[in-house]
Amino acid sequence: MLERHILMKDLNKHNPNVLRQFQERKGWKWFTNNIIDANEYLVKEFYANIAHIRQGTKVTKVWNLKICFDSCAVNKYVVFEEVEAVQYLEKLAMGDAARPWLAEILAIPGSTPAWVTVGVPIVRVTLNFEAKGWKTFVCSRIEPCLNENMLILPRAALVASIMVGYPINISAIMSTNIILAIQKGERSYLYPNFLTKYFKDQGVEPKHYDTEVKAKKPFS
């Protein structure tokens, strides 16, 4: 599943806190850079090899090199902070019980969204300006998704946790999602653009039959 470009200029005019947090959170400006085309064969090789590694291991071979994809390795590469995301994980674990808290953070001020009720989907039109901005970021780069209108509960917990300033270990989220994609047998591989750059910068050699795919356009 291809990542999307982020247009910060479109977010900043409505979301001053988005710009502030990107400036204050170590390494997050990395996501505002242009992302390179995804190497389709390289990423497929990576995911195919992950399917056969020992449980709990986050090291696999990608063509000519052994690649570590745990949170420590990725944080070091992108220069993210290695933080304990306790508060975010607690909200994530609450599931539907977190809906009232999510409404306080994400909903348009003065409104009581229908999705406070369990089973009602969280839709973009009910979100405040800042929540829409962070939803764009999360759904573009951290947990890429196809549906720009809906916000599933786990992503809502992440968006709200970012907004209130909870420590977020982005690399831990990405590393976990990679493993989950394999365990669920998903065919739409996550983070192909990021992984392509990561592998290239680690020294993975290109192949003559490589096929590159461009990142998607930003959410409008």
Automatic annotation (TrEMBL):
InterPro entries per record: Transposase_32_dom
Q: Could you name the domain of life of the organism this protein comes from?
A: Eukaryota
Any idea where the Putative plant transposon protein domain is? 25-204
Q: What is this protein called?
A: Uncharacterized protein LOC104226668
Q: Which organism is it from?
A: Nicotiana sylvestris (Wood tobacco)
Per the UniProt record, the lineage of the source organism begins with:
Eukaryota, Viridiplantae, Streptophyta, Embryophyta, Tracheophyta
